[in-house]
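Could you show me some protein's one-letter sequence and the numbers that encode its backbone in two labelled lines?

___
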Amino acid sequence: MTRQEYENWLRKEDFDLDTAIDDFDGTTAAHIAAIKNDCEVLEYIAQTNPKLINRTTDSGITPAQFAAEGENDEAFDTIMKHTTFEKVWQKLVIDRGLNLEDNYRTFGYILDKTKEYILKEINNPNKKQELKRIHSIIQIKTSIFDAYERKYFAKILKKEEY
């Protein structure tokens, strides 16, 4: 993607050309690219304005969360090439205090992606400390999620009985 193509994309999405941020709610070009599963724009942003990859909206949502909410695997994987699961969990669980009732699918999606990452990197000695930090961040939320998941599936099974 060229700078001109990116600027045209920003104009089409009504973003400020200098900041790529919507003043109304703090949404960035990275958020919209994540929603639209536009990996080319995400790569361009990561290379030219990397802070936008982890920036939150005014309500605390990151581009990774938008990608997860839409189950946009390509966008999520592109974002994760330029950030860490530790940062995603930090913003998701600690900074935002994710509400499971409203974000069940998003939490599950990111948890599954994190498990894939951990399994892939488990034997990498260079990742040992990072994996420990990720584990400590998600440990409590995961136990809450597991309890919620059992409750959620119990509701589904109960509905199917009728």
